[in-house]
Amino acid sequence: MYTDIKNFLPSNILFFNEPLKKHTTFRIGGAADLLVTPQSEEQLIKLFKYIKENCIRYVIIGNGSNLLFSDEGYRGIIVKIGSELSSIEAIPCENGMIISAGAGTLLSKLALFACENSLTGLEFASGIPGNVGGAVLMNAGAYDGEISQVLVRSTYLDCENLSVCTKNFDEHDFSYRHSSYENDGYLILSASFLLKKGNKEDILSKMKDLNNRRITKQPLEFPSAGSTFKRPAGLFAGKLIEDANLKGYTVGGAKVSEKHCGFVINTGNATCEDVLGVIKYVQNTVFAKFGVELETEVKIIEAQ
Hints:
By secondary structure, this protein is of the alpha+beta class. It is built from seven helices and 17 strands. The longest helix is centred in the last third of the chain and has 19 residues. The two termini are 15 Å apart.
């Protein structure tokens, strides 16, 4: 299937029947028909021209830190935006410096680059295990910081018209864990952030403090997709789950973390069905006890 794609894309970026558990932090998921890791805008345009002409189902992923794939894998093409599209450029400006980064740039790498250049504003992102594209898409945040606080603009590929365009800040429609990209389906290529000059030692100290808090409070020793549920207005998902006596609740290899109840973890060989079983039970129990509907933050991708 899709073997004719080899006629216009190099074989080293094409992975047929690729296990998706290798590409998500949950370490869960069956094989995709084809996974592609484009290395340039030109390759992306060729790929989406092929997808459009053949009406092929597709999903765009980055570091896979917020995804849960089906045990049956994915019938279609996975477009993975990774390290091949991860350049970083710094441009001085009146208010500090604008850093432009490719969508495949890891947030940890971007935060470290900012620190090394004595730029403040991205400390909160240093421990988020995602990349720039995914962070802009979902307005990623932690410890009172969000991408929307520093983003200036982004560039994207209109996958339908095969054109490269720019969005200014006010076109992103940012809100909690949301941007306009979730609705329009464009592929983020890069993003630019306005950062202010700061003291390098203070920036590094704050990054270390936040990362130590993560290590202390989050189950980083187990595969997961980060926070499983969005924060309900005025409440905390983890606290609700703990108060519902669900700490340690287990289905197969999936478990509500005893370290932080807002995380569903893979204890070793969890399946997608195991995780979904835990999620459903938690949602039903919390609603029955407190009348609060927990919405998943993790994106669940069906096989077909």
